[in-house]
Design brief:
Elements lengths: L3 H7 L3 E5 L5 H14 L6 E5 L18 E8 L2 E10 L7 H9 L3 E4 L5 H15 L3 E7 L16 H15 L4 E6 L9 H13 L3 E6 L2 H10 L7 H9 L4 E5 L4 E5 L5 E6 H8 L1 H6 L5 H10 L5 H9 L19
Parallel strand pairs: 1-2, 1-6, 2-5, 6-7
Antiparallel strand pairs: 3-4, 4-5, 7-11, 8-11, 9-10
Helix pairs in contact: 2-7, 4-5, 6-9
């Protein structure tokens, strides 16, 4: 089991990735900013080339070849600046806006080629950027979903990134998994997330936890003036004292806030995959994002790619409708 405090305080240049796409890069700031302010590190932030449907109507993450104004530092791994965006429409990424906020480049990850390619690209990018730690941050907690949770909506990106993190860890790269803002994405409930955390902790995989501080919360709120995010904003609201029921997604989804949402829980990647990484295990050998999606569908799990295709009226390459059922964790 890794010690989160030793890793976080001992590294000088961490790569901190919002692993779920969209505004998760703001949740990554909850990890990187204390390292910068209190530990003297020089973190690099990043996220995925997957913007949510309100910002990009094309289903799925964009390929690196569709992106302009970025430098490819490894296959599928880009350095983004404030103007990095799509070639085919007027859209910049959340990471581009974070780059503008920070005044430095951020990292964009194209996950279309599947976990192994992502891991290989990240290994090269980590070497090129001279990073000494990879931290994968999930906002909400669905990265440790079993697949049967009624509110689960976006397990695919997290599963692919966790599987890639496991491959990197196995190769010797120090990797931490962080869960910030439990329940704040209105997918898993706080009780469901805490239950999965207990399973990981029981297996020896809970490495530590850190809470927001005033200066870090201030910094996150300042970033949200440029970077659109709802889930991370709810976690900061919790730090400010908000409690009870809140809504996001235009009032369509509700969540429960408590002070626990202002914490980031750090987990050992390998132990997490073995103890509560059923979905990451399912996609680990997928040769593409499409294969990973099909692997989750085979478990009866619908994904964010399925929902986006439904909303856009796009048929999947297999011609099959998305999974609609749920399965028990032991199935």
């Amino acid at each position: 089991m890794r010690d989160a405090e030793l890793l976080l305080r001992g590294c000088r240049r961490p790569l901190v990735i919002g692993m779920g796409g969209g505004g998760d890069v703001v949740g990554a700031l909850a990890t990187s900013e204390p390292m910068r302010v209190y530990d003297g590190a020089e973190p690099v932030l990043g996220g995925l080339t997957w913007e949510r449907r309100p910002f990009d109507p094309v289903p799925g993450p964009r390929q690196a070849s569709e992106i302009a104004g970025a430098e490819e530092i490894a296959p599928g791994i880009l350095l983004a600046g404030p103007d990095t965006g799509l070639r085919d429409r007027d859209l910049v990424f959340a990471e581009s806006r974070m780059s503008e906020f920070l005044g430095e480049p951020t990292v964009l990850i194209d996950i279309n080629a599947g976990p192994t390619s992502v891991a290989e690209g990240l290994a090269k990018a980590i070497a090129a950027l001279k990073c000494d730690l990879l931290v994968l941050v999930d906002v909400g907690g669905d990265v440790i979903a079993y697949g049967d949770e009624p509110g689960l909506r976006s397990p695919l990106a997290d599963a692919v990134m966790l599987a890639a993190g496991g491959q990197l860890s196995t190769s010797g790269q120090p990797v931490l998994l962080g869960i910030f803002g439990i329940g704040c994405d209105a997918e898993l409930t706080p009780d469901e997330v805490l239950g999965r955390l207990a399973v990981v902790a029981g297996a020896g995989g809970l490495c530590g936890a850190r809470g927001l501080t005033g200066p870090v919360a201030d910094r996150m709120e300042a970033s949200m003036e440029l970077v659109n995010t709802e889930a991370s904003a709810q976690a900061v609201r919790s730090f400010r004292g908000a409690v009870g029921t809140a809504t996001i997604r235009g009032g369509r989804r509700s969540l429960e806030l408590s002070a626990a949402a202002a914490m980031t829980f750090y987990l050992d990647v390998d132990i997490t995959i073995n103890a509560a990484g059923r979905l990451a295990q399912a996609v680990a050998d997928a040769g593409s994002l499409e294969e990973a999606n099909e692997a989750l569908n085979a478990l009866g799990v619908a994904t964010e790619l399925d929902y986006e295709r439904d909303a856009a009226g796009v048929i999947s390459p297999s011609g099959e409708p998305p999974a609609r059922g749920t399965v028990s964790p032991g199935a």
